[in-house]
């Protein structure tokens, strides 16, 4: 039995939310989906737990895009009440190493990224006011 994904895996202050590097065809949720699948196949409902900020429609769109790009495989598991699981393909697994580098970079520059975001937001408010 695999461990459930933690609900706070991608909380609002996670460096992944500040990472300016996009993976997976420009979809802003793709990298998070790939991270959720790094330890093995998951059902849609399992992915929804840590990806609570993503609408069901947005998650479906991300999964379809990743599947189309060859990074994720969708499998219908037969049995008593068939179910669908998503897992990384070998190509998708090859994304894990560069994503780890990008996440480490975001962690190293966390304070600078936050400062830049806050500075920009404050300037935007000044211009609007």
Automatic annotation (TrEMBL):
Gene3D superfamilies according to UniProt: Winged helix-like DNA-binding domain superfamily/Winged helix DNA-binding domain
The keyword Ubl conjugation appears for this protein: no
UniProt keyword annotations, A-Z: DNA-binding, Transcription, Transcription regulation
InterPro entries xref list: HTH_HxlR, WH-like_DNA-bd_sf, WH_DNA-bd_sf
Pfam name, any one: HxlR
Domain of life: Bacteria
Biological source species: Sphaerisporangium rhizosphaerae
Protein name in the entry: Winged helix-turn-helix transcriptional regulator
Segments forming domain HTH hxlR-type: 14-114
